[in-house]
Amino acid sequence: METLLEQVQSYGPLALSVTKAFATLIIGWIVANALGSLARRKVNNTPDIDPTLGNFIASMVRWVILLMVLAAVLSIFGIQATSLVAMLSAATLAIGLALQGTLSDIAAGFMLTLFRPYKLGQFVDIGGTAGTVKDLNLFVTELVTPDNVQVIVPNGQAWGSIIRNFSHHDTRRVDLVFGIDYADDIDKAMQIITELAQADDRIHADPAPWVRVTNLGDSSVDLTTRVWCDNAEYWNVKFELTKAVKEAFDAKGISIPYPHSVEIKKEA
């Protein structure tokens, strides 16, 4: 009994401190997530504020609270904030070198939020990686590719790369190239394409559909077609106009050449 009491007296305070620290971490984690979600909802429910800013603020609120929780846990074990600052100050160079990538991502996150080269839901290409922006937080930008693959891009890399935003403007130009046979009537083929474009309500009349001969290939005369449409209709116009032109060419005797191969056999 005396030995048991001695062990309780020796390890009791440590066990109590560990329990307090564990409880503080759990409660702090829950509070950080709850306040972060609350900040996101408040910002997103404000019509004049972009939802991209809501995600960034939520991430910042969450990490600030977690840092406060960490300081509280350290104080439970007797490590005061002033001591922690002194320790960090003494190791400034080492910490700076170790965290320079993370600090760069945070700074880039602020720049991306300030200038907003892309927003949530927009389709972008960041340094050669294309996808829809799903999230922008304090450290990374999350993209979802058209085949539903998650891509995580560090903010520092995103800010330092060429960004192509396909969703920024309300309208886009659809470029198509149709090849016809050298023996076919060029003006007739151009008229077919123009009439199909003018008959499509999704294609804008201004700028007017543009069809020109742009190349004399090895086996075809290439007709480049440029039409304008709403951004949301880009792919539908591209695919359906291609199909419509092919069917109209077939119906009106315009041939689309394709490579032919000749097999030569040498008999003994």
Automatic annotation (TrEMBL):
Keywords: Cell inner membrane, Cell membrane, Ion channel, Ion transport, Membrane, Transmembrane, Transmembrane helix, Transport. InterPro entries: LSM_dom_sf, MS_channel_C, MscS_archaea/bacteria_type, MscS_beta-dom_sf, MscS_channel_2nd, MscS_channel_C_sf, MscS_channel_TM-2. Residues 102-168 form the Mechanosensitive ion channel MscS domain. GO terms for cellular component: plasma membrane. One of its GO terms (molecular function) is mechanosensitive monoatomic ion channel activity. The chain crosses the membrane at residues 20-39, 60-79, 85-112. It is found in: Cell inner membrane; Cell membrane. It comes from the Bacteria. Residues 174-256 form the Mechanosensitive ion channel MscS C-terminal domain. It is a multi-pass membrane protein. It holds the Pfam family MS_channel_2nd. Gene3D superfamilies: 1.10.287.1260, 2.30.30.60, 3.30.70.100. Belongs to the MscS (TC 1.A.23) family. Homoheptamer. Mechanosensitive channel that participates in the regulation of osmotic pressure changes within the cell, opening in response to stretch forces in the membrane lipid bilayer, without the need for other proteins. Contributes to normal resistance to hypoosmotic shock. Forms an ion channel of 1.0 nanosiemens conductance with a slight preference for anions. This is Small-conductance mechanosensitive channel.
